[in-house]
pyridoxal kinase (Wohlfahrtiimonas chitiniclastica SH04), 292 residues
Amino acid sequence: MAKSAPQRVLTIQSHVTFGHVGNDAAVFTLQRLGIEAMPIHTVQFSNHTGYEIFTGEVFGADHIEAVMDGLVQNDLLNGVDAVLSGYLGSVAIGQVIHRALDIVRSHNPQAIYVCDPVMGDKDDVGGFFVDDTIPPFMQKTLAKASIITPNHFEFEVLCGRLINTLADAVTAARALMAQHDALHTVLITSFREDDAVDELMTLAITPSEAWCVTTPRCDYLPMPSGMGDTFSALYLGHILNGRSIEYAIRYTTSALYAFVMDTDNGARDLSIIREQAQMIEPLVLFDALPIV
């Protein structure tokens, strides 16, 4: 009896020796869900940049192109089911990711592209922590993305206006999807309706569905890095495994909350190894409620 091939994800993100951000969050998460991860690293650092000291190297677009070229020459991209990207240090890296996606979709037109449009956060001074070339590039990326995973601030940047209510979020997300043929799912993390202070909402919006998972807000200082990277990979993994939108957002949000709760207050890195079983079956499942 022939064995079915596992789903494959090309993930183009950062790499750190210590901690779980970028590919070091995504690869393990995808593998834990039974999915083959194919990482290309955009940087190799000792640890993430939230530390006062970090060492290593930023890889240029030519480095990523060289890795891609080997995959192309060996016909190793013809079985890729999804592409995953996160923080971009430069537009040039983003352009290489777009070219990689074009190659993948030349073999598999149905390949999913999950883009975490990392740009900033409401709780950061000034909002943005990327240079001013990245937000316009993220706008262009909407034309290629299947699923986007912005936080509340980033969603407002993409929409070009403030979003204060659930109804407004659904309307704005569906307007984005109506403008971009490839885009079929908008996930919004850390959503606060009318600036609520004691809870956070995670939204999953498609042209025909809208779900909300509400969790208590955790006021760690600093918040551990790697949450967005883990979230995007975990949601993608559930979708590739055939789960529904409701299931994927419910299980992903519940697992992420468990990881945050397992992380010590003040720790800079998200704890995903000790409680890895909760990627599959969270001990506490928060409800996913329809937004009406």
In short: The CA atoms of residues 192 and 200 lie 6 Å apart. Strands lie at 8-16, 36-45, 56-58, 82-85, 112-115, 147-148, 185-191, 199-205, 210-216, 288-290.
